[in-house]
Structures are given as structure tokens and as C-alpha cells.
Amino acid sequence: AAPALRAQFERHVYGVMPEASATKIISHRIIDEAAFGGAGVLEEYELVASATFNGETRDSAPFRLTLLLPASAEGPVPAILMQTFCPTSSTIPHPGVAPPEGGDFCAGDGPAAWLMTYVFGRYIATPPLEAILARGYALAALYPSEAVPDSRSRGEAALEALAAGHGDRETRWGAVAAWAWLYARAVDILETDARLDRSGLIVWGHSRYGKAALVAAAWDARIDAVVSHQSGTGGASLTRGKKGETVAEIADQYPHWFAPAYARFAGREDELPVDQHQLLALIAPRAILLGNARRDVWSDPNGAFRAAKGAGPAYALYGRGGLAQDRIDRFDPQADISFWIRPGTHGIVKEDWPAFLDFLDARYKKPAS
Asked: How far apart (Å, rounded) are the C-alpha atoms in residues 5 and 3?
């Protein structure tokens, strides 16, 4: 059963989720009613989320949720909820979106920003906003490090503080679970907005946030579809028989991402009682796009394809087809599980977003302009 399977993932991989959660709006403001040449309405929330473990409730640091809606929309529109490496001032670059304290390391024309774009692709910081709006989608962005930093020291401190009531150090949640929880806290806000389609709340994430997007959907039925791009180990790719990044390597380099118990399976992956096809199965019958690149061996595209096939029986229980492709290079945007692969390496390049939007259009039938 799904609750028992989630409990296994919490115990051995991601850590225990809060027994109760809440989201408080500190402020809400309209930044620009005619943003990006009049194409969008730009707004921003400041939020605080609370987590309860064993009856003890703690608040997160404040974080922002920046919302961009298509100005010409008639009726409720689907919303793509993103978590990114970059602050929202780079995800949705607009003078009214202030950078975080300490600045926006993704912004500007300096060598660091240039190198990041050169290595990880033109859309690593900023998605194609005009194309997203033109296809009829709202975009909501949050920078998860505002609440749970992607840092060994600061991230661990935030995770410990939020999970103060959780007594078992080995199963204390990691950052991937906490970022998934932040997706859900943003959904708390978005689902109350009458301008948004309640059956069109989509979570989007790349790499580590692709892992979190899958976990968010597996734990929260309010999420209607997932775009998880190059999520790799602890995301869509199978742990057993895996190429690329191992449990030992990910636990050593990013010990704050997973429950401490996860590191026990370094070199013992076959002993894990769960694997990632079961994470995908927890999302059934909702739609999933798994994005990949041929040379991104570290993220193991073949392992993700095998996991997608392995999730098929869960979709069949709902009378759905699951993965319809018989090869990794036959992208079917209308399938329940769509597998997208392109040439190149780890990042977000010009070919990716048209595929993402075709996948979403197959569900929400938003015509291209």
C-alpha cells in the first residue's frame, strides 16, 4: 500500500516528513501588472512554513514565492511551480524582484554567470518566460535555499531546527525531502488562487530539484503533473545496478540531501528495500516527464528509463498505459510517463523547454500562439 511504501522511503532514503504543516502569508504584493511587455502580471508572496514533528512545531526562515500569470488569460490557467539553483531575481528577472541578501550570484554579465550558462545551458537560470506565457501557463518560482540552504553546514542547521521534535537522528529528513515539503507549502498558496487551474498544478525541477519534485508529487496528491529533468540518483534513476553516481558518492558529497540512514547503503545498494520505480509508482496515475541527456551518464538515463518501465504496473491499476515508448529516443508527450532525451550533457538547453511545454500541452491543450 502507498502509506507503507512512503514509510519505507522515509526510513531508508529521504527521512521522515512532518506530521503536520502550515503556511503563513507574511506579505503579498503586485509588482507589475504589465510585466515583460504587457505579457504577464507579476506578483510576490513572502511566506513562512511550519513543520510539526512529535507535537513540536518550528517555523522556517521566510522565503519568497514569485508568481507570473499570463495577462491575456481567460479563465483559470495551469501553473508551473519551479525550484531553481538561482534566486527568483534571476528566474524571473525584473527590477521589482529584489535579489536576496548578499546578492544574486546568477545575475549579471560577469565571468561566473557566463561560465554557468556556458556549462549548463541557456535556460539554467531563466526559463523562456515569454514562450511559457504565450502557451497559457503561469509560472511560480521559489528559491529553496532561502528556507533550507543547499549547504552542508547551513542546510544541516536548518533541517535540524525544523525537525527539532524528531528524535531519531538516522531518519531525520534531508534537504530533498524538505525541498519537496516546500513545493507543497507553495501549493498551499497556489491552490487558493481562483486564477489558477486547480487541476493544473505542475511541479518542475532540474537535477537535485528534480529529485524533490518527484518526492513532492509522491507525497502530495494535489500536484497534478511532474517535469523532473535529469534527477539521477535518489530521483528517477534506479539505485540497484546503477551507472554513474553511487550512493557512496552522493552521501559523501551531499550528506545533507538525504536521511543519514541512506549512507548505510553505500556499496550495499542491493540491500535497499525500495527503489526508484516505486517512487514513480507512488505518483500514478498522474503524468510524469523524465528529462535526460545522452552524455549525462552521471544521472544514468538508462536507469531512469528502466524505472519508468518498472512503474508501469502501478499505472495499469488505474487503467493507464504508463510509459508508451519502447526506446529511449521515441519521445511521446501524450504518454502517462514521457521520457525525453537529447544530445549533450547536464543542464537546461534550448531543446528542453519545447519538449516540456509539448508534454504539458498534451494535458492542458493550450495552443501555441
From this structure: 5
